[in-house]
Amino acid sequence: MNTLLKIQNISKIYSSEKKLVEALKGVTFNIYEKEIFGLLGVNGAGKTTLSSIIATLLKKTAGDILYKEKSIFHQLISFRKILGFCPQMQNLDMDFNIDESLYLVGRYYSMTKKEIELRREFLLDQFDLKRYRKFNLHSLSGGYRQRFLIARSVMHDPKIIIMDEPTVGLDPKLRRHLWKFILDLKAEGKTIILTTHYLDEADILSDRICVIDQGSIKAIDKPSVLKQKWNHENLEDLFLELIKEKNNE
Amino acid sequence: MKNIFITFFYLIYKEILLFAKVYVSKLIDIFIIVSTNIIIFTYLMPSFGLKANYGPFIVIGLIPLLTLFDVISRVYSLVGDISENKKISFILTLPITSTLALASIPIGWAAASGIVSILVFPIAKIILYKQLILTNFSFFKFIVAFILSNIMFGFFAFWLASLIKDEKYTSWIWARVVNPLFMLGGYFYTWYSVFDKSEIAGYINLINPLIYTTEAIRASVFGQSGYLNYYVSISAIIGFILIFSIFGIRKIKKRLDCV
Predict the structure, then answer these.
(1) Which terminus of chain B, N or C, has fewer Cβ atoms within 10 Å?
(2) Which of B18, B25, B89 should one mutate to test binding to chain A, selecting the residue with the greatest count of A CBs within 10 A?
(3) Reduced to 3 states, what is the DSSP secondary structure of residue A32?
(4) Are A186 and A195 in contact (CB under 8 A)?
(5) Residue A96 contacts B where some CB pair is shorter than 8 Å
């Protein structure tokens, strides 16, 4: 597999009220082309910090991320063009309706009106949002907003998609639908970085998973390899053991 | 490069679109503000000894002032967004530098507020008719002063937002910032009237960025006589734009810890 992103020794230290918190401690790994890479960890493990740094949203303290052997921070604009980011928090302009919002997103990425039209119709179909297209976002339920958030992140047809806990708050039916959508994206040749709390989700979707705890990588490999290596039948037992071992150190 | 400007343009356009949703309501606000100012300062205050041309003087001073009031009201939502909602984080992942993405916010505010505050002029002309004399009116000077004033207020509000940690600390804005700026910003008087009373007070008054906007706009409408030199005012406004934009963007970037 071809390496798409090289995450090299990434550290992140937050400073708040004269206290320093080390959220990431020199994290190093590669992300391959056309894979679904699952980032697993408990709350505060550093998953969102790491995905935000890869999304060029947050400053790193040390280390680098290479795309085509060049730091993404030195090719910020071209890297952002091929990146779609679905954050954990619904950072939406609630006064716009779905149609307006997707139109604006398309324009932000310099898409033509024709391209916007086609892509928007496709996504509205995919996420079953057509009948709500003229609804303001504030009038939609949390689940529909989440659908929209995901649709927004792929509006410009990005090559790399970062999804930070995309299925939180979704009903089981929609969750399954989104899994299919993620697998379709992979089949289209996209690379997906998926942050999740749901271990079944990570197990089913991810080609490789990375267990992160207290800012360090605990394990990284294919789910089947990890389960075999640690002699567990399911990912949940493996995850709990990795976290327990770390906490006992 | 072209694509960066397209993104930048549409980020500004987004603010205008948002504003368009409340445009009618804003239009009603403007009509009420302008008409009450005209009634008080043109028809009532002369009976207390004020000159009859004080009404037009006040109404033209309203143009920059209304932009200031409008953009200040946006400080609250930005402060709330930075500390809680993080809507701002979306624009920081777009294919544009973070500096330009952030700069689009105050420029968008300025553009949106400008669409309404510019209406003061025709409304005032309709109501005052012959009392608003435009023989010395320079359209070019007016547009330059108007656009730059709006941008300055946009960045001023943005800089203010960058200083406020939390929404609960925003209550002091009107009392400690807007009120002194407004009262000492040349809305009720010309800079020369202060300078004639006390040179020191006149020089101190030059610290207030609002004074340059009211003086520049009135100079472009009523002519240069009696007002601060138009080009000096414009230069000062540009200087303030640079100061507020540099410090505001730098501070917000630091707070958001963005690339």
Answers:
(1) N
(2) B89
(3) strand
(4) no
(5) yes
Per-residue pLDDT, A234? 81
Helix residue spans in chain B (DSSP H): 2-20, 23-38, 54-80, 88-91, 98-117, 120-128, 139-163, 172, 179-183, 191-197, 199-205, 209-222, 230-256
Instruction: Give the start-to-end residue ranges of the domains of chain A.
Output: 3-248
Provide, as residue numbers in chain A, all residues whose Cβ is less than 8 Å from the Cβ of B165.
none
pLDDT (0 to 100) of residue A88? 87
For position A247, what pLDDT does the model report? 55
At residue A124, the pLDDT reads 96
Q: Which CATH number fits domain A3-248: 2.60.120.10, 1.10.10.10, 3.40.91.80, 3.40.50.300?
A: 3.40.50.300
- Cα torsion angle, B92, B95, B100, B103, sign: negative
Q: Which residue among A56, A57, A104 places its CB closest to the CB of B14?
A: A104
- The dihedral of CA A150, B86, A54, A28: what is its sign? negative
pLDDT, position A116:
97
Q: Taking CB atoms and an 8 Å limit, are B87 and A92 in contact across chains?
A: yes
User: What pLDDT does residue A11 have?
Assistant: 96
pLDDT score for A246: 53
Q: Could you give the strand order of the β-sheet that contains A191-196, starting from the edge strand earlier in sequence? A: A83-86, A160-164, A191-196, A36-40, A208-213, A216-221
Domain extent at residue B25: 2-256
Low-confidence ranges of chain B (pLDDT < 50): none
pLDDT tens by residue, B110-164: 999 999 999 999 999 998 888 888 899 999 999 999 999 999 999 999 999 999 8
- Nearest CB among A57, A76, A81 relative to B89 is that of A57
Out of A57, A81, A91, the one facing B87 most closely (by C-beta) is: A91
Using a CB–CB cut-off of 8 Å, the residues of B that contact A are 2-4, 6-7, 10-11, 13-14, 17-18, 21, 85-90, 92-97, 257-259
Cβ contact A188:A36 at 8 Å = no
Q: Where are the beta strands (DSSP E) in chain A?
A: 3-16, 19-32, 36-40, 62-67, 70-71, 83-86, 160-164, 191-196, 208-213, 216-221
The residues of chain A scoring below 70 in pLDDT are 245-249
Nearest to A108 among B2, B7, B257 (CB): B7
Q: How much is the pTM?
A: 0.92
Q: State the best of B22, B86, B93, B166 to mutate against chain A, taking most chain A CBs within 10 Å.
A: B93
Residue of B nearest to A162 (CA): B93
Q: Which residues of B touch A96 (CB under 8 A)?
A: 17-18
What total of structural domains would you count in chain B? 1
- The terminus-to-terminus CA distance of chain A in angstroms comes to 34
Report the chain A residue with the minimal C-alpha distance to residue B77: A93
